[in-house]
Design goal:
With about 750 residues, the chain is α+β, with helices and mostly antiparallel strands. The protein folds into six domains: about 5-105, Arc Repressor Mutant, subunit A (Orthogonal Bundle); about 110-185 and about 240-300, Tex N-terminal region-like (Orthogonal Bundle), CATH 1.10.3500; about 325-470, YqgF/RNase H-like domain (Nucleotidyltransferase, domain 5), CATH 3.30.420.140; about 490-560, DNA polymerase, domain 1; about 565-620, DNA polymerase, domain 1, CATH 1.10.150.310; about 635-740, Nucleic acid-binding proteins (OB fold (Dihydrolipoamide Acetyltransferase, E2P)), CATH 2.40.50.140. About 45% of the residues lie in helices and about 10% in strands. The chain contains 31 helices and 17 strands. It has a five-stranded mixed beta sheet, with helices on both faces. Strand 13 and strand 14 (about 670-675) form a beta hairpin. It starts with a helix and ends in a 5-residue tail after the last helix.
């Protein structure tokens, strides 16, 4: 096993053999979903997240090794590579540690220390450090060089101090020790710039802010640095509360065996240590720790985005129900589109029930006609402008004609406008106006959120905080990985999937996805998975990686409806021969399958662990991991924040999750905040995602209503008398503008608009 393998194994607390198996599979071109699903027997059942970590760490450590070799070569060329230094460089486990070791040998501008060394003051610096019992001035007197402007003992001592200060500031072990001390004891401090109070009011919570570096929340870090960038805040790190630096000076002195014992050179050396801290080391650590803070906050923000996106994509689909989608509007009217169970557009129209047209009766008749004509089962109402009015209009229709049994569901429009104006939408719906395409998107995302949202750039969906501040490359990479994992975890119906959705299937990509759709259009639906081999440019490797994640419900091979990979069909044949039965009889028959021993059907290619996975899939063939679709009805009479009173227990839907709590839609214009301290009766929750998920239906109790600031404090600790959330906690939920009332909303399609409503889509 390699050093990289061993290090990753140690970090993940798994066996090196498991890590090496994943690395080998990645090297062969296998995708993470394929490795996680179909090669468990090779890597010991690592999940997709662990495999992602292995993939990322492998790249990081490979880059680090490349940098390590460069550093070793550079120092060696300088003739300064000692055995001890080489060993330290080889032992380094982080890029920061590696760069600390390289610091003294890095090419740099000509410094005062270099000038002093060129003037021959190196021996003086060594002597002053080694012999504090001697008088510094007396020692300096032997190093005078008038031709080098060193004509006094003081000038010589200044040169020696420059040499020692640079030496102190480039000592890797010392820097590591001081960085750790600064991280444990230091603070992030933010203050508003004078005269910027009004302009920078959105950063009010940071006008006079201090937090230990170890504990400052990631969203505070990102907000502080944004405020600094926009010139509203002064942000700095200080090594200790009250500006204390004694511990750092002592650490420098101790490292170089400097002590105040009353000897002639002690005071000068201590002053040199203090000078090194003030002029070099503190600045270096400040820059390094600011970068550390930023990178940590960035990682957390990106991970939060990814987790929320995964929850959103995993939202419950309404399924193959006929849908009437309404994209509300006033002057431009309400755009309508009817889709069959596959998402195919059957009909569309526009009505003008509201100001300035006031054609309500005509609109009601048109909507009723479409519902009856197409046997509509669900009515999807976009939550944008005029949503409240449209929802009321539909309610009137349902009351006026009780024979209509369609259920109304308010659906987020987040990203619908992005899709409708996209090049892909124009190719997918060439005969429809842009506005009608928006209605189609709303309806289809009710039927299958994942299949529709996959057509939108993840960053446009609106489930991220400070998304424009973080690295766009890292964000895109993480979100793409999330989409890939989610799509393959659910599986894709080959004969109905769009090219956008197919492109996210393991081993396919955009080009092959287009080829699959073109072949399907030209030759009709795929009859089985084997027919995929006829698609141009879809070779054996792509088939291997993709086939298991593709479903064909009408296939002439029943296993094609399941997650059993075609390579494992011979194993299933052995099982059928053993049972003396046909496939249809055992699919889903958990009772019979549970009695089988995997070892009885194992071979060299499919060991018992792999056969166990096959039996599990046969027991629940093609099971959709997403939750069942249902709607939630909000409390009648609660339509505005003014309708809320402390103590009320209400149903709600989780619309967004941050590291400080969860936003809950109560159907009253504004989302409320359940602070992390109020998510569980067990007390403070470290990770809100461990308690709630986006789209989840919950019951909450109103703790406090702040009408002037439009803030609602909630609690999920229903059986307890809860004090109002602290001002600081409430401050995390910035002012939220009004949104349409939602009398009903799909649990599976309560898209995370909270960031947008809260002004946090950044």
């Amino acid at each position: 096993m390699t050093q990289i393998t061993d290090q990753i194994a140690s970090e993940l607390a798994v066996r090196p053999e498991q890590v090496q198996a994943v690395i080998d599979l990645l090297g062969e071109g296998a995708t993470v979903p394929f490795i996680a699903r179909y090669r468990k027997h090779l890597h010991g059942d690592l999940d997709d997240q662990q495999i992602r970590v292995i993939e990322e760490r492998r790249v990081y450590l490979a880059e680090m090794n490349e940098r390590r070799e460069t550093i070793l070569g550079t120092i060696s060329e300088q003739g300064k590579l000692t055995d001890e230094l080489k060993a330290s460089i080889l032992r380094a486990t982080t890029k920061a540690e590696l760069e600390d070791l390289y610091l003294p040998y890095r090419p740099k501008r000509r410094t005062k220390a270099q000038i002093a060394l060129e003037a021959g003051l190196g021996p003086l610096a060594d002597a002053l450090l080694a012999h504090p019992e001697r008088d510094p001035n007396a020692q300096a007197g032997g190093f005078l060089k008038p031709d080098a402007a060193i004509d006094t003992p003081q000038a010589a001592l200044e040169g020696a101090r420059a040499i020692l200060s640079e030496r102190f500031s480039e000592d890797a072990k010392l820097l590591g020790r001081l960085r750790d001390l600064y991280w444990r004891q230091g603070e992030l401090v933010a203050k508003v710039k004078e005269g910027k109070e009004e302009q920078g009011s959105k950063f009010r919570d940071l006008f006079d802010y201090a937090s230990p570096l170890m504990k400052v929340p990631s969203h505070r870090v990102l907000a502080a640095f944004r405020g600094e960038k926009e010139d509203f805040l002064d942000v700095r790190l200080r090594p200790e509360p009250e500006e204390g630096v004694v511990g750092y000076i002592s650490a420098i002195a101790s490292h170089f065996k400097i002590a105040d014992k009353g000897r002639p050179g002690d005071r000068w050396l201590l002053d040199t240590a203090r000078w090194a801290w003030r002029t070099k080391i503190e600045l270096h650590l400040n820059v390094a720790l600011r970068m550390d803070l930023w990178e940590r906050a960035e990682r957390e923000a990106i991970e939060l985005f990814a987790v929320n996106l995964r929850s959103l994509l995993f939202a419950a689909p309404a399924g193959s129900k006929r849908v009437l989608a309404l994209d509300p509007g006033f002057k431009a009217g309400v755009k309508m589109a009817v889709m069959d169970g596959t998402g195919r557009v059957l009909d569309f129209a526009t009505v003008y029930p509201f100001v300035p047209h006031h054609r309500s009766e005509e609109a009601q008749q048109s909507i009723r006609s479409l519902i009856r004509k197409h046997s509509v089962e669900l009515i999807a109402i976009g939550n944008g402008t005029a949503s409240r009015e449209t929802e009321r209009l539909v309610s009137e229709i349902l009351k006026r004609w009780p024979d209509i049994k369609a259920a109304k569901v308010v659906v987020s429009e987040a990203g619908a406008s992005v899709y409708s104006a996209s090049e892909y939408a124009s190719r997918e719906l060439p005969d429809l106006d842009v506005s009608i395409r928006g209605a189609v998107s709303i309806g289809r995302r009710l039927q299958d959120p994942m299949a529709e949202l996959i057509k939108i750039e993840p960053r446009s969906i609106g489930v991220g905080s400070y998304q424009h501040d973080v690295s766009q490359t890292l964000l895109a990479k993480r979100l793409d990985a999330t989409v890939e994992d989610t799509v393959n975890a659910v599986g894709v119906e080959l004969n109905t999937a769009s090219s956008k959705l197919l492109a996210r299937v393991s081993g396919i990509g955009e080009s092959l996805a287009e080829n699959i759709v073109a072949y399907r259009d030209a030759n009709g639906p795929f009859r089985n998975r084997e027919a995929l081999r006829n698609v141009p440019r879809l070779g054996p490797k792509a088939f291997e990686l993709a086939a298991g994640f593709l479903r064909i419900q009408d296939s002439d091979q029943p296993l094609d409806r399941s997650g059993v990979h075609p390579e494992a069909y011979p194993v299933v044949d052995r099982i059928l021969r053993k049972l003396g039965d046909d496939l249809k009889s055992i699919l889903g028959n958990q009772a019979r399958l549970s009695k089988l021993r995997a070892s009885d059907f194992a071979d060299e290619k499919f060991p018992p662990a792999a056969v166990t996975d096959i039996l599990t899939e046969l027991a629940k063939p093609g099971r959709d991991p997403r939750p069942d679709f249902r709607t939630v009805e909000f409390t009648e009479g609660v339509e505005d924040i003014k309708d809320l009173e402390p103590g009320m227990v209400l149903p709600g839907i989780v619309t967004n999750i941050t590291n400080y709590g969860a936003f809950i839609d109560l159907g009253c214009h504004h989302d409320g905040l359940v602070h992390v301290s109020q998510l569980s009766s067990k007390g403070f929750v470290k990770d809100p995602h461990s308690v709630v998920k986006i789209g989840e239906a919950v019951k909450v109790r109103v703790v406090e209503v702040d009408l002037p600031r439009k803030r609602i404090s909630l609690s999920m600790r229903l059986g307890e008398a809860t004090e109002p959330t602290s001002p600081r906690a409430l401050a995390a939920a910035v002012r939220m503008p009004k949104k349409p009332v939602q009398s009903q909303s799909s649990v599976g399609n309560a898209f995370a608009e909270a960031f947008a409503r809260a002004g946090l889509r950044k």
